[in-house]
Amino acid sequence: MSVIVLIEHSSGNIKKKSFEAVQYASEIAQRLGTSATAVVAGSVADSEMQKLGEYGAKKVLHVPDERLNNLHTRAYCRLLITAARQENSEVIVTLHDVNGRAIAPRVAVALKAGLVSGALSYPDLDQGFMIKKSVFSGKAFAFVKVTTAIKVIMLVPNTFQLSKTTGSVIIEKLSVPFEDKDFAIKVTEVNKVTGQIPLADAELVVSGGRGLKGPENWGLIENLAKELGAATACSRPVADAHWRPHHEHVGQTGGTIRPNLYIAAGISGAIQHLAGVSGSKTIVVINKDPEAPFFKAANYGVVGDVMEVLPRLTEAVRKFKENHQ
Ligand SMILES: Cc1cc2nc3c(=O)[nH]c(=O)nc-3n(C[C@H](O)[C@H](O)[C@H](O)COP(=O)(O)OP(=O)(O)OC[C@H]3O[C@@H](n4cnc5c(N)ncnc54)[C@H](O)[C@@H]3O)c2cc1C
């Protein structure tokens, strides 16, 4: 019996949020008196997988099939189910992200497991495996008790601080009886964003909404982000209008981020947007409308025109850096 956790990687580099999932799974495993096993799919070097030991994993089950370098949902479900059955797992952890949402519910059905999406806490075992989760797009919390023998938990990324320890893992190959239909979807092209800070891992984020008026003004967002060393993000209508790429869209239907600083410029603060950013440690809102709902969620607010405020803020950051070198 062990707790298993699905790992995500990008070109063989394990994502920060997966280290967090491993840390989470290993803490649960400790409380249950067992250990955490990480499941890795695709081309990842042994040296990279060893890093999982630094976050508490004791074992890695590796499926080195190159086809798994892209997300094939059916194949990923099959490998996670195979791993869970082989390890006799009671708890399966994925992330509450695009991949986790595609995989975890199907795995839960196949294993007749209770599923907790949007998990924000460790299970309280004294309360019979009770977990705090986010509901209504992050507007409220619910405490749910999972009563099935097998539990699938989808952890919201950036819920816990990473803390590295020493430790190593035993790496074993996992054999999975894939079928051709598991790879029925053909990936014809992969476009990777390079030279930018990945949004999911960013500690600082500068984000723009429809208040920027058009893509021609995005230099204002990018200049501030560059001065701060921040990633850039946007609201959904901005991505829908192709002002910005879709991977920058945050919110209920986009990415969930929890940076230390989230600067929202010209974004109204609709509930669907807040769903993706309300876990940010500090929120700064720039909006010309003092009644904009985002101000209610902000730690700091600037009532003003983004066209004036953003260049002044960028200049202030530049000067501050100059004086504090
Ligand atoms: C099912 C569903 C899912 C959704 N998912 C998402 C999601 O994941 N993410 C998301 O973002 N949205 C999502 N939405 C859309 C969401 O409801 C809002 O419509 C959207 O977030 C609004 O984007 P915005 O704030 O950029 O634009 P607007 O609502 O148009 O707000 C623009 C803001 O800019 C301000 N402004 C205008 N000009 C200036 C200026 N010169 N200077 C300063 N401020 C200015 C305005 O006062 C206003 O507050 C979803 C909606 C639905 C129905």
From TrEMBL:
InterPro entries: DHS-like_NAD/FAD-binding_dom, ETF_a/b_N, ETF_a/FixB, ETF_asu_C, Rossmann-like_a/b/a_fold
Chain residues that bind FAD: R210, S235, R236, G266, I267, S268, G269, A270, I271, Q272, H273, N287
GO biological process, one term: fatty acid beta-oxidation using acyl-CoA dehydrogenase
Name of a matching Pfam family: ETF
Domain of life: Bacteria
Cofactor binding summary note: Binds 1 FAD per dimer.
Protein name as annotated: Electron transfer flavoprotein subunit alpha/FixB family protein
Organism listed in the record: Mucilaginibacter straminoryzae
Lineage of the species this protein comes from: Bacteria, Pseudomonadati, Bacteroidota, Sphingobacteriia, Sphingobacteriales
